[in-house]
């Protein structure tokens, strides 16, 4: 069955057109655009007109791909920013007008379930798993063996932390300390709610994790085939995070693996990743290119 899955988060919007058969996904189209839908939401509580316009433009391009391939089964899930915004109805109306389907503003629990499904498919590692997904506005923590057993969504994300604390370029010691305090409190609360320290395998999802994995490997360019299921040590993650913290946005932008839309917020994500590894006690993580987007595709089929 050929399906189209769309994941719209706080920072990026992504499309997966895939053939799903016998529990496996074969990519036809996989795209990602940084639209920063959640820009300013932590401060204003609203989606801005500019953010909605950027998201509309990306969706129009996706609709062209979907209609060109004649796909009938489409599911779009929207996460943190559209949960938090007081004008989420404007977002829903816009999506309906472009795609002809309603976006599902999913709960943190549903987000966790879809992320788990996508992440464990094809993963050759020892359960139980602690899977965490660093988004723009939130980070999800999920534990389980064959399915979700415990899950929690926390209001820490790379965009939210950047807008809340990291205003200097590069960030100051005081800004970093405030961010670390905020993240540590949230991570400790999450790990008290889900038994992540007891998991045998730590799996990290989303752009912060995959970009830092690429940097740790010293890749000359972003190569998903070398990043997917690569194992990275806690020491290597801490080293890359510290290097990113010392750089300006322009210096991060010049890194060959860095997506242009991620350079200004990856420091917030790097601090989340570093602290998750420290507080959970895991010495290494497995990076996954498969995540909630793949889970959405499985759910359609």
CATH class of the largest domain: Alpha Beta
Q: What's the SSE pattern? A: EEEHHEHHEHEEEHHEHHEHHHEH
In spatial order, strands of the major sheet run: 8-7-6-9-11-10
CATH topology of the largest domain: Nucleotidyltransferase, domain 5
The domain tally reads 2
Q: What low-confidence regions span 5 or more consecutive residues with pLDDT below 50?
A: none
Overall structural class, as computed from helix and strand content, comes to: alpha/beta
Secondary structure tally, helices: 13
**Outline:** globular
CATH architecture designation of the largest domain:
2-Layer Sandwich
Summarize the structure.
It is built from 13 helices and eleven strands. The chain is α/β, with parallel strands linked by helices and 301 residues long. The chain has two domains: 2-108, 2-Layer Sandwich (Nucleotidyltransferase, domain 5); 122-292, 2-Layer Sandwich (Nucleotidyltransferase, domain 5).
Note down, in words, how this protein is organized.
- This protein has 13 helices and eleven strands.
- Helix 2 (49-68) runs parallel beside helix 4 (88-99), helix 7 (173-193) packs across helix 12 (266-280) and helix 8 (207-217) crosses helix 10.
- The model has no long low-confidence stretch (mean pLDDT 94).
- The protein has 301 residues and is α/β, with parallel strands linked by helices.
- Strands 8-7-6-9-11-10 form a six-stranded mixed sheet, with helices on both faces.
- The protein folds into two domains: 2-108, Nucleotidyltransferase, domain 5; 122-292, Exopolyphosphatase. Domain 2 (Nucleotidyltransferase, domain 5), CATH 3.30.420.150.
- This is Hydrolase.
């Amino acid at each position: 069955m050929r399906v189209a899955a769309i994941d719209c988060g706080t920072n990026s919007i992504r499309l997966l057109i895939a053939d799903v058969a016998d529990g496996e996904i074969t990519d036809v189209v996989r795209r990602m655009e940084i639209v920063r839908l959640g820009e300013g939401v932590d401060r204003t509580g609203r989606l801005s007109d500019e953010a909605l316009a950027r998201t509309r433009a990306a969706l129009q391009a996706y609709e062209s791909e979907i209609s060109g391939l004649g796909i009938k089964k489409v599911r779009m899930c929207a996460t943190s920013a559209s949960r938090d915004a007081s004008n989420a109805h404007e977002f829903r109306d816009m999506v309906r007008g472009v795609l002809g389907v309603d976006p599902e503003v999913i709960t943190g629990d549903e987000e966790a379930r879809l992320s788990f499904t996508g992440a464990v498919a094809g993963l050759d590692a020892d359960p139980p798993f602690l899977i965490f997904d660093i988004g723009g506005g939130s980070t999800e923590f999920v534990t389980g063996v064959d399915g979700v057993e415990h899950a929690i969504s926390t209001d820490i994300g790379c965009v939210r932390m950047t807008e809340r604390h990291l205003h200097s370029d590069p960030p100051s010691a005081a800004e970093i300390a405030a961010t670390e305090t905020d993240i540590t409190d949230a991570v400790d609360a999450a790990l008290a709610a889900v038994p992540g320290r007891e998991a045998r395998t730590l799996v990290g999802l989303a752009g912060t994790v995959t970009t830092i994995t690429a940097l740790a490997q010293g890749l000359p360019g972003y190569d998903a085939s070398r990043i997917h299921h690569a194992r990275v040590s806690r020491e290597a993650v801490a080293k890359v995070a510290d290097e990113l913290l010392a750089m300006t946005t322009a210096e991060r932008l010049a890194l060959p693996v860095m997506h242009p839309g991620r350079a200004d917020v990856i420091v917030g994500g790097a601090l989340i990743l570093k602290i998750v590894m420290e507080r959970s006690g895991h010495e290494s993580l497995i990076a996954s290119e498969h995540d909630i987007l793949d889970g959405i595709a499985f759910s359609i089929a």
